[in-house]
Design goal:
The chain is of the alpha+beta class. The protein is 46% helix and 18% strand. It folds into two domains: 13-71, Arc Repressor Mutant, subunit A (Orthogonal Bundle), CATH 1.10.10; 86-249, GAF domain (Beta-Lactamase, 2-Layer Sandwich). It has nine helices and eight strands. The strands form two sheets. The protein has a five-stranded antiparallel beta sheet, sandwiched between helices. A three-stranded antiparallel beta sheet has the order 1-3-2.
Length: 255
């Protein structure tokens, strides 16, 4: 990376300084602390504080709770508009790792495929536990992830998959599922009791981008007596809060 490009006399110096700060953080191998940015850029602390505060308030940089700076949601939105794609796995993984530590259960990330929602990331410290899924597993409509996609993804995209899944259900199951999906849309969280294997249940939440388009779903999978079954649970409330932070990475703003 080079931050020493020739400066034209027609440029705005303060804007160039801000761009240099963004570039320095963008090409860092990891988020940067205030003092590290100060050392690398040579900007005085008082001026650097003003630059970082402005860039953070405008969403161009993101400051974590422990004071680390990384690229913000606004730059992510610009980048996504430019290349029309989101690198979901890399950006979400640190959040999933934290969730796994807090919930002490397996955490999965699912993305859409022609076979339905598929597990694309799995984080666990319970390697001997059979959760009924691994990376590449296509999940059914009755799974917590399946209900997320049924609730928030365009019907034109999921129509064939959904029809095939519904064909194997009774009218009673279809009615119950329809009610559950409606509740998922309202609450922004999905629950499933033992959808794949006995004694293993799950909870899932949507990840939206700045257009409120569903990018993926993440969730917790574990023993039925540990995984929540409603929004009143402490874990559910924690996951709902984490969900907002994750979607904000992709520019989503909750109302």
């Amino acid at each position: 990376m080079s931050t020493s490009a020739p400066k034209s006399s027609t440029t705005i110096q303060s804007l160039q300084v801000g761009c240099d700060i963004i570039e320095r953080i963008a090409f860092s191998e990891q988020p940067m602390k205030f003092n590290e940015i100060c050392e690398k850029t040579g900007i005085t602390k008082s001026n650097l504080y003003k630059y970082l505060n402005t860039l953070t308030q405008n969403g161009w940089l993101y400051r974590s709770k422990d004071g680390f700076y990384s690229l913000g949601s606004k730059l992510a939105e610009y980048g996504l508009r430019a290349v029309n794609q989101e690198n979901v796995i890399d950006r979400v993984t640190p959040y999933l790792q934290e969730i796994q530590k807090v919930c002490k259960s397996t955490v999965i990330l699912t993305s859409w495929s022609h076979n339905g929602p598929v597990v694309v990331k799995l984080i666990t410290n319970q390697h001997g536990l059979n959760i009924g899924a691994s990376i590449g597993t296509a999940l059914p409509l009755l799974s917590s992830s399946g209900k997320i996609f049924a609730a928030f993804m365009d019907e034109a995209v999921i129509g064939d998959w959904k029809s095939k899944q519904l064909a194997a259900m009774s009218d009673e199951q279809k009615d119950r599922l329809e009610a559950e999906v409606g509740l998922v849309r309202e609450q922004g969280i999905s629950f499933a009791r033992e959808p794949l294997v006995p004694s293993i249940s799950s909870i899932a939440l949507p990840i939206f981008n700045y257009e409120k388009r569903l990018l993926a779903s993440f969730g917790v999978v574990g023993f039925t007596d540990v995984v929540p079954k409603n929004t009143d649970d402490v874990m559910s409330q924690y996951l709902l809060k984490a969900n907002k932070e994750i979607s904000q990475v992709f520019g989503y703003k909750s109302i």
